[in-house]
Amino acid sequence: MLIDISLRLWRRLRAALTAALVALAPGWALAEPTLLERQTVPGSVISLTPPPDFTPATSFSGFEAPYGASILVNELPAEAESELYAGFADLGAASAAVAVQGVTLERAVALPEDGALASLKPLVYQGKQQVQSLVFDKWIALYVGAKVAIITYQAPVDAGPSEETLRAVFASVRLAAPLSVEEQLAALPYAVGDVGALTLDRVMLNGASLYTLGALTPGEPLPIAIIAPAIGQASIPEGQRVNTSGALIRSVAGWSDITTDPITTIELKGAPATIVTGSASGPDGAPLRFKQWMLFEAGANAYLRIVASAPADQWDAAAPSFETLVEGLRVK
Q: Would you give the distance in Å from CA 132 to the centre of its chain?
C-alpha cells in the first residue's frame, strides 16, 4: 500500500514521531518575542505563529528556516486521543517513545496558563537528537482538540530561535473545528470531477487526497489512488522529468521488486506529462500493479502527481476508474 492504514493508535504515534524525527533528517523573559502572523497548515485544522525566517515548507507539512530548522506538523484523528495521550503523559513515557530515534528528552516545558491553550491539554518536551555526528535541539508536543496534533521542532544546536520564542510558538498552537469535506476539497490546488467507482477516503495535509475502490481495512490491500501536488517547489527542467518520474515511483515506501515499463511523455490537460506503469510487491509481499501520471508546470505547482495501485488480480477492474479520475482532474 502507498500509505499506512493501520488503526492501531500507538503505532500511529510512533509513525508520526518517526516521520518527524527522520524526515527532517534555553524561563520566560520579560520582552515579548517577535513572531510572524498566525498561519494555518494547508489542509489541516492546525494553526500557529511561526518564528521569524520560517516559511511554509515545500516537502513536508509545517514550516522551515534556511539555516536547517523546521517545525513539522502531524494531524491525527480525534479517536487517537486516549492512547496517544497515555503514551505522552509524562517525561518517561514520551522518552521511551522517541529513544529509538536517537532523541533524549530532558524536561517537560510549561506553557503559560491560557484558557484556549489549556483546553488543548498540551504536553511539551524539550531535548536533543543525535544524528550521526550532528546534534539537534528538539521540541516535541501533543495537543488534543477536534483532532490530535503532534508538533515537532528541530534545529542545529544553538542555531535556532531562543527558548522564549519557541515557548511562544508552542503556546500559539490552536486547533480549529474540522473542515467539511466540501471545504477541504475547495482548498485544494486542483479540482476533481468524475471518479468512476472510486470514493474519496480523505484529504491529507499539503493538498493530497486519497481515493479507494472499497473501504480501507487493515491488512486487506485494495485499489487506491493518491493525488499529490508539489506545492511551492521549483519547476523540474524538461530534461530531468523522465528520471524524476522513475525515481519517485521507485521510492514508494513499502514496495519492493519494482519493475517499470518504458516511461512515456505526453501532453495531458494542456501540460507536459509523463506516465509510468509497472508492477511491484506490496508490504505483504503480494504482487500489485501501478500507474503514475505526473503533470508538470501544473498551475502554481511544480507538478501534480497521481499514483494508482491495486492488487494484481484487481487491476483490470480498477483501471477504468483510475483513468476516469485522471480525465476529470482540473488544475486550478
A: 25
